[in-house]
Amino acid sequence: MLIRFRKKTDFENYLSLRLPAKARLGFVPTMGALHQGHLALIQRALDECDLVACSIFVNPTQFNQAQDLRHYPRTEEKDLQQLLEVGCQLLFLPTVEEIYPEGPDRASNPFSFGELESVMEGAHRPGHFAGVAQVVSRLLQIVRPHALYMGQKDYQQTLIVRSMLRQMQAEVELVVCPTVREKDGLALSSRNLRLKPEQRKLAPQIYRHLQAARLAFLENPLAFRQIEEQQLQKLSRLPDFRPEYFCFARTHDLKLLAELPPEQLPPPREVVLCTAVWVGQVRLIDNLMMA
């Protein structure tokens, strides 16, 4: 049985009255257009918690372009059916006014992430992570879960949220789950729905180039600059592909290896490879751990 709430007061009242004192509550925040990656998060939460809540809210403050917000896929009826089938118990479907009563344009941002929000996604989507922190912090204050489940595909976002939790002094466990992929390697994303058929056929090349770069890096870690440049050039040659970045970084703070002195280069187990690529009008991100 899936119980739905649109008002935060109704959701908060339900949890205060119905959640057993020692029950563990898991939470999976989403923007809808659910796929197997989201469902894997919910299944993990169901395995580890007594009760699982999911939210569907397309957050306007994390979009840099109004066009991207307008085109974000909305599939509420299909989402509801998938949540029922996987066994999720609670669903929060708030309006913008419920999350931002003061208006999204006036929402405050009490968090600071330093250099972490100025590289990769932060550099190409200014203000994006401030919007992520705004919505996740407000959702956490409503749901008050014991565990928060997020996917590794949005690796930089998981580091931002981990920092946000520290700044909030929130006693919430962040559980980062492996990226779920199609059989051809393409990382599952709601944005994949917007790919044209010929673009969808080529999109798995992103993962293949990540894999090739990982193998080359493990053979010769000091050649990371050449590997980055080679893969950027190869991706740029593919039809409709416009890579924004393809770079190695430290796992704990995303400091680019290219900006580190040789004596500070981390071992492969502490390196992540991240990329963002425009395929036509759709922007896709992905990453791979080196160990």
SSE diagram, text form:
Layout: E1 3-5, H1 8-18, E2 25-30, H2 36-48, E3 51-56, H3 66-71, H4 76-86, E4 90-92, H5 96-99, H6 121-124, H7 128-143, E5 147-151, H8 155-168, E6 173-177, H9 197-202, H10 205-219, H11 224-236, E7 241-250, E8 271-279, E9 282-289
Parallel strand pairs: 1-4, 2-3, 2-5, 3-4, 5-6
Antiparallel strand pairs: 7-8, 8-9
Structure description:
The strands form two sheets. The protein has a six-stranded parallel beta sheet, with helices on both faces. The mean pLDDT is 96. The N and C termini lie far apart (40 Å). The protein has 291 residues and is α/β, with parallel strands linked by helices. It folds into two domains: 3-177, Rossmann fold; 190-289, Pantoate--beta-alanine Ligase, Chain: A,domain 2. α7 (128-143) crosses α8. The protein is built from eleven helices and nine strands. Helices cover 39% and strands 19% of the residues. It is globular, with a radius of gyration of 19 Å.
Give a quick precis of the structure.
The protein has 291 residues and is an alpha/beta fold.
